[in-house]
Fold this sequence. Notes:
Strand order of the largest sheet: 4-5-6-7-8
Mean pLDDT: 86
Shape: globular
Number of strands: 8
Radius of gyration: 21 Å
Distance between the termini: 41 Å
Helix content: 10-25%
Largest sheet: 5 strands, antiparallel
Low-confidence stretches: 253-258
Order of helices and strands: HHEEEEEEEEHH
Number of helices: 4
Structural class: alpha+beta
Amino acid sequence: MRGVIPYQPWAKAKQLEYLADMYAPAKRMDVDVDIRCFPRGVPKASTFGGFEFRYIPGFVVILHGSGEHYTSRIIPMDGRPHLGENVKLYMGDSVGHWEGNTLVVETTNNREGTWFDKHGTFHSEEMRVVERWTMVEQNQMYYEARIDDPTVSTRPWTIASTFDRGRPASNVTQEVTCHEGGEKFMEGMVRAGLRARAVGIKGYHIHVDVTTGKAIRPEDQKYLDESGQPFGFSYAPPVPDEALPNTVPGSGDRSPSR
């Protein structure tokens, strides 16, 4: 699949809407929950940054951590059923079991709004994720996640990676401080997006080769061509005050953004 998620046509179009909103965000909901300091969701939490396993009777605890962003999962291993379908959670509802030396975790009840990355790769609330962790040698773990979401995908698909054991755990969980800095960061992103929209700047949050300016994925190049966005910008470029109408937040009137 060359790293391309098998989206249904309507879902691919929806992803492009998300990418356009990220390029020039008009509200906080236009950017990924990770940037807003919300829980990353599954399987994203397992693929961003490090993680640590702890064990208590009847449960496996996974501490996911990276920078100032931390989440955790307490996974029952007693074969209990999932929560009712009406309950939706950012980290979903995980239950686990062992298959030999492989930890297998099934997660359902996933809340809509968490992405697989920071680039609009979304899922529906019908998504079911089966993760597998296997120690392949003393200091290396193999990780695999199979995603089944018939609402948005044409077929199930899988991501996989290996992780090397890092420095010994300190057994100290740091205080989460993401929101303190994130609030100011989010305000700046939305203000910049509103300024860009006010002067008609449009584009897509698509990764490009910094040398050629072409999309990393050839199938995405047509969207860059259509938008005419400036070379090298995955977010809308800064707009000077003199280019803005006086009614735009951030121009001469200094009105707060909404």
